[in-house]
Amino acid sequence: MFVITGPSGVGKGTLIRGLLERMPELELSVSATTRPPRAGERDGVDYHFLTPDEFERHVRQGDFVEHATYSGNRYGTLRSQLERHLDAGRPVVLEIEVQGARQVRQALPEAVAVFIAPPSRDALRARLVGRGTDSPEQVQERMDTAEGELAARPEFAHVVVNDRLERATEALEAIIRAARGARAKHTCR
Fold first, then answer.
1. pTM for the full predicted model
2. Contact 163, 126 (CB under 8 A)
């Protein structure tokens, strides 16, 4: 299992799309959220869009491996999503926020976690503004949250700075391939 984390707007999704093109054997786990779909997003493909009551029911039933509140919305990884992929023998990629990555690390210490960092705080702000999905207030809220998340960078053994997309995708791929190779060698012994 591979956990890709970092602040909102750092390019996690873009890097993961590039990674999946290079390594089609990987499966992306679809997270659940209470936020409304953005233009073009589809339920069950981009996210499992849940009402707050549905999300809370899953929390009470222990259905999430991790869950967190981010920018006023709830996000989580359904255990059933992970088990379906892992039971099929497919390596799984999770795209989650730092709070969730910490929870996964505690619950599943064998997971390989990669922190995606922006080249600078100014670059992060420019990306958030440039994607045009958030109001100025929401951008500021995401930047405020990002300050705490960026401070978590030293907690992660693997860090990729997303300064140039191709180079960052190559670095992420190298980390995943090395971890898969080490795991295969360990399993063969």
1. 0.88
2. no
Burial of 151 from C-beta contacts in 10 A (0-12 / 13-18 / 19+): exposed
- pLDDT for 128 beyond 50: yes
With tokens 């990629």, the residue in question is 93
b/e map 102-124, b = 16+ CB within 10 Å:
bbbbeeeeebbbbbbbbeeeebb
Query: Parallel, antiparallel, or unpaired for β 27-28 and 92-95?
Result: parallel
> For residue 113, what are the contacts with CB-CB under 8 A and spacing of at least 6?
2, 3, 5, 101, 104, 105, 156, 157, 158
Q: What are phi and psi of 172, to 5 degrees?
A: -65, -45
pLDDT in tens, 142-159: 899 999 999 999 999 999
Judging by beta carbons within 10 Å of its beta carbon (0-12, 13-18, 19+), is residue 180 exposed, middle or buried? middle
Q: Is 53 exposed, middle or buried (0-12, 13-18, 19+ CB in 10 A)?
A: exposed
Nearest to 23 by CA among 189, 180, 163: 180
